[in-house]
Design a protein that fits this description.
- The chain has a domain at about 45-245: Spore Coat Polysaccharide Biosynthesis Protein SpsA, Chain A (Alpha-Beta Complex).
- Helix 1 packs across helix 9 (about 275-290), helix 1 packs across helix 10 (about 290-305) and helix 8 packs across helix 12.
- Strand 1, helix 2 (about 60-65) and strand 2 form a beta-alpha-beta unit.
- Helix content is about 50%, strand content about 15%.
- By secondary structure, it is an alpha/beta fold.
- The protein starts with a helix and ends in a 13-residue tail after the last helix.
- It has twelve helices and eight strands.
- It has helices spanning about 1-30, 60-65, 90-100, 110-120, 140-145, 170-190, 215-225, 245-265, 275-290, 290-305, 310-330, 330-355; strands at about 45-50, 75-80, 100-105, 125-130, 135, 155-165, 200-205, 230-240.
Length: about 375
Amino acid sequence: MIANVLFWASLGALAWTQAGYPLAAAVLARVRGRPVRKRDEEPPVTLIVAAHDEEGVIERRLENLLALDYPRDRLEIVVASDASTDRTDELVERVAARDSRVRLLRCPRGGKVAAQNGAVRSTNGGILAFSDANAQWKPDALRKLVRNFADPDVAYVCGGHFYEAADGTNREGTYWRFEAWLRRNESALGSITGGIGPIYAVRRSDYVEVDPRFGHDLALPYLMVQRGRRAVFEPEAVAWEKPSRDLGDEYRRKVRMFEHCWLIVLRGRMLRGLGPTYLVEVLSHRHLRYASGLLHLFLLGSSIALVRQGLVYQIALGAQLVVLLAAALGVGIARYYVLVTWATVVSLVRYLRFGVPAVWAKAEGTR
């Protein structure tokens, strides 16, 4: 009896989070979409780049931002250096000496979010934009972001994102194309359930200083919704970055990211004060997605226990074994899916055993 419950519950949950929910969101977005009232505007913007030991990419990052199609007198670029020990500070100061839009802010070592919080406190721009040191933006990306703030209900907006071609075996780009499609539908429904770190912006009046261990990508969207605001997706504001070199690097990066996600899911009060539609979105896209590794373990174990009880269990077990074999043989998308799914389990164990630090080592392959 227990095995039957585990089998059908885990199979149903996986089918819903991976296929049912995305399709339902797409249909509902067409039926009851809530468009954003956009208008081209040029409000004062403070663009913040948190950096720790980014000497290899920081000059390119600043040159890219200085080339944005945005009025000079309405753009301030602050590099919040998280106690960098290499030439990051020196290189930023060199750029700042020839362009007054750039400013260096030295911060004590506290992690990315702590540096971002410090930069927000030291600036005045009505719109706060954020980016990573290894990202690049298209020239019109900032304009496309801020036009969403013409809608008074919008507090947070993230842009579109793609990866350069991977040097090795990583398949992260495939995953992000699916995520972009799902974000468009969630945004049309009202609000997205997760942001995109390389390119996003927040009204200063709506900015929230979160626990430095949380991270903005997952925390800010649901916090905006809990306050009666909207967090939306702007696919035309495009950023890109270099992916991890291979699946091994990507797996380690995912473990680190999922540790922070588990912290927010378990201690961030994500479900408090949400309306029914957004509550279903968060449960379907975030909670069940992060639990997918555990669900797969339940499904595999119950399939083995029930394999003698009927054809459906035999087919289910056979399908799982085929995917695992394909992953073991290095078939690209199968290996990516299995490793990323397993990362959700490893990260949960690590979170429960060790907690989550506010600082972490960046993935060098993405630089």
